[in-house]
Amino acid sequence: MKKPFKELDLSNAFLFAAALEDEETCQQVLEIILGFPISKVKVHAEHSLLFSSDFRSIRLDIYASDEMQVMYNIEMQNSDEKNIAKRSRYHQAEMDVMSLKPGEDFNDLKPSYVIFICAFDPFGYGLYRYTFEQKCLERDLKLNDGTTKIFLSTKGKNADEVPKELIHFLKYVEESTDEYVASIEDKAVEKIHNKVKQLKEWRELEASYMYFEELLEERKKEGMAEGKAEAKQEALLLILSQKGNVSSKLKESIQNQRELEVLDSWMKLALQAESMQGFEAQIETAKALV
């Protein structure tokens, strides 16, 4: 059962993206993650969540840059889909394309960070933070291409190797409550929490969240129907292949058919047909009756 909007933790991707669209909050989170101060942050409007009128194509990652022209892409990941390394590669490539304007030299590419906050351990070593840079395998030599990928885990166990501020923040991601914030006495996390509480009181954002969840449910149902259609198509083609050669025209017609009821009726006809010609004739008759 889904939590009501006001009970969400920061681990919810929608709330996380909404919170980090506030530039002060985004800067605060980046400084906790990186462990050093950064200059004023600008969250780019083209990736805006709060002011989007079309949630059907919305992204829940945050794209930002600072006054030193360092670029950041930050995303919350709740489930391990076994593709996080390739996902980080995609985000990196996308940032590079956006960073380099036509006519600019490759040396004009800005330094960049791709950051994932994971509610699981992405690599299985029990670390709170995994930092990757490009290195030469044959020598102790950095590529110095200006790219860094950071994967954070709320399930880390190496508390003696990372700043306590980072641990506080990662635990807060999954326990975004007044009680937890009071127990750690961390000013940075308290500031983030105050912003999160403000967002939870914003009725327009709550309505947007409910609409967004409805769209996700629709997409899930559409995806399940799509999968069922593909399975029925494959089964139908397998049955027909035992009755003769399936023409490219018939194969295309079957693959373009997405209605489950129609595919079910074709399956029955295929099982009853004595030959490929008989099946095609029955299909044409059925089409003529519609």
Mean of residue pLDDT values: 87
Tally of helical runs = 10
Percent of residues in beta strands: 5-15%
Please trace the helix and strand order, writing H or E for each element: HHEEEHEEEHHHHHHH
Distance between the termini: 42 Å
Given as residue ranges, the uncertain stretches (5+ residues, pLDDT < 50) are none
Main sheet: strands, sense, barrel: 6 strands, mixed
How many beta-strand elements?
Answer: 6
Question: How large is the radius of gyration?
Answer: 26 Å
| Order of adjacent strands in the largest pleated sheet | 1-2-3-4-6-5
Coarse shape? elongated
Structural class, by secondary structure, is alpha/beta
Write down the oligomeric state: single chain
Assign a percent range to the helix content: 40-55%
Summarize the structure.
By secondary structure, this protein is an alpha/beta fold. It has helices spanning 13-20, 23-34, 84-99, 164-174, 178-184, 187-200, 203-241, 248-256, 260-272, 276-289; strands spanning 41-43, 61-66, 71-77, 112-118, 129-132, 147-153.
Commentary on this structure:
- With 290 residues, the protein is α/β, with parallel strands linked by helices.
- The chain is 49% helix and 12% strand.
- The protein contains 10 helices and 6 strands; from the N terminus they run H-H-E-E-E-H-E-E-E-H-H-H-H-H-H-H.
- A 6-stranded mixed beta sheet has the order 1-2-3-4-6-5, sandwiched between helices.
- Strand 3 (71-77), helix 3 (84-99) and strand 4 (112-118) form a beta-alpha-beta unit.
- The chain is elongated, with a radius of gyration of 26 Å.
- The two termini are 42 Å apart.
- The mean pLDDT is 87.
